[in-house]
Amino acid sequence: MRRSYVGVALAVTTLVALAFVIPLAMLVLTAAQDRAMREAERQALGLSAVVVVAKDRELVLTSIESTQAGKDGRLAAHLPALGTVGPSRVDATVVARIREQQVAGTTEIDGGRVYLRPVALPEGAIAVLEVYVPTESLRSGVAFAWLVLLGEAIVLVVVSTLLADRLAARVVRASRDLARTAASLGGGSLHARVQPSGPREIEEVGGALNVLAERFVELLATERALAANLSHRLRVPLTALRLNTETLPAGPDRDRHVRMVDRLENEINAVIVEAARPLAARPRLRCDLGAVVADRTQFWGALAEDQGRPWQADAPPAGITVPAAFSVVAEALDVLLGNVFHHTPDAAACRVTVERGPDQASVTVDDGGPGFRDPEAALSRGASDADSTGLGMDIAQRLAEETGGKLTIGRSNLGGARVVLTLGLSAEEKPPTPPRRRFWHRFFGGPTGGSGAHARR
Length: 457
What we know:
By secondary structure, the chain is α+β, with helices and mostly antiparallel strands. The protein contains 14 helices and twelve strands.
């Protein structure tokens, strides 16, 4: 931006300087020529009185040599009776034309210009006075004047460019401060503020950004308080649920319900803690994807066993670290697996597989149910044609996008739907991959889904 300001100022000032310097330079040259020709005319007029009364050639020659032009060999007189007196540089035809026209004129010759002036003699004859003006006289002082004009033009361009640079620096400095503050706000530093400076428009933008940041902090604090209050209100029914669970007879069912209540209580506590924690203070979360998948498949596998549902969960690879919290990934997997148990018959098979790529890992959930009626609509937040909120798939999709992955829906070889949750790996966990492997992975790797008319869930 600063270079653009300086470039525009340089171009405009240069054009303006040229628009003035070129005509002035031509005017200086014309003025120098006019000055030299007026001097030649004055020399001719001084000799005119002598030519009118002179009868002797020596008198005319003495008068010529008494002038500066005569001393320099630049003055001559063409007399009808006495002939040419002094050094002449034009031929007789030019002299004859001036004598015939009886009008003063000039003619260009090598090395300069000649001024010719007719003089009427008493006998009715016409004498012609010749004054030679060399090129040096025609351009006397022109080079110096041109240098002065050029110097003035250069000074004008330099000064205007420096002023434009200073102005641009002020604008750019204010713009960079504005951009840095906006980036800090976007990165979670909600207390970053702009020091309004620069042109009035940028100051107004900076002030508006500060107002926006203050309003955002207020709204965020309100939302955090609301989330904490709502989570805290859940403790009362949660306590009642725990008491009811503890009254169940001892056995596997009671233990499973107790674990579910414990997990629900942990999630509520986590919501309260996270709502009170500033964004900038939140830690960088990571978890082992294999551990999450193993935990959730164990939980849902027990339910599949109770229903008599065909169930297959391959052992996930170890050491797959994704940039998300354990609970967040578990929530997304519960959404995908919960959809299978909620929207497919008990006899519909379910299979969970985990694959690791060079920079991503994917969890694939295949089922033998009716599938999705509209796969694209299934990913729309809040849209559902079944008895659900329509938020589950959006939760999983947001997790995938936040880690650099995606959520895709297709056709499973079990006859139902295939949902693939692809998550990006943590930066330090991404293994080096040779170029050839990256090429094949880009164009041929990864699971793909089919199409068909399936029920929305």
